Amino acid sequence: MSAIYRRASQVVVRLGPESHDNALAVDTLKAISDDADFNVDKYTITARSGTPTDLLENDHRALMAKETNWIAVKNLFEREWFSRLWIVQEIKCATEAVICIRPRSLPQHTFRTAVHWVWSRASPSISVFEEVTLHSLEFHN
Questions:
Q1: Nearest to 43, CA basis, from 119, 140, 122
Q2: Which residues contact 137 (CB under 8 A, 6 or more apart)?
Q3: CA–CA dist 79, 130 (Å, integer)
Q4: Is residue 23 situated within a structural domain?
Q5: Pairing of strands 104-107, 36-39
Q6: Is residue 137 part of a domain?
Q7: pLDDT digits over 12-38, tens only?
């Protein structure tokens, strides 16, 4: 299967049917990614100084004020796709991937950057993430 993903010009990852908060989750992840730099080689992520994401990183009250956004992101992370073992292969082997979350989509690098920021910076501080386990999110090229 990995050979198929490597040879594909683009892998389209469909995270399932539309839900009431998909758009909010995707918009939240895109905004975070737009404000952050992800160093793939060092596996580190940093919010750019002065951005809204930097504010979230440094102000617990600002982080908590976005509870509706975090619930939407949590709901996205609880989708069945994240529990499947082959997703690591699907994403890691892909030259290029698009994550489709109806009615929106995100390029792989945008999704990866935002997910890593949420997981490393926001989730330790936000109670809605306490029961979410994302073992499968260790995908990186």
A1: 140
A2: 82, 115, 116, 119
A3: 16
A4: yes
A5: unpaired
A6: no
A7: 888 888 899 999 999 999 999 999 999
Q: Show the tokens assigned to 98.
A: 């698009």
For residue 141, is it within any domain?
no
Q: Is residue 47 part of a domain?
A: yes
Query: Taking Cα atoms as reference points, which of 76, 65, 57, 54 lies closest to residue 129?
Result: 76
SS3 101: strand
Q: Which residues on adjacent β-strands are paired with residue 14?
A: 100
**Which residues span the domain enclosing 81?**
2-132
Angle in degrees, CA 94, 9, 7, rounded to 5: 65
Nearest by Cα to 98 from 6, 4, 11: 11
User: Count of CB atoms within 10 A of residue 6's CB?
Assistant: 13
Average pLDDT of every residue of the chain: 82
* Whole-Å CA distances, 55 to 30, 34, 66: 16, 14, 12
Query: How far, in Å, CA of 48 to CA of 53, rounded?
Result: 8
* Number of domains making up the chain: 1
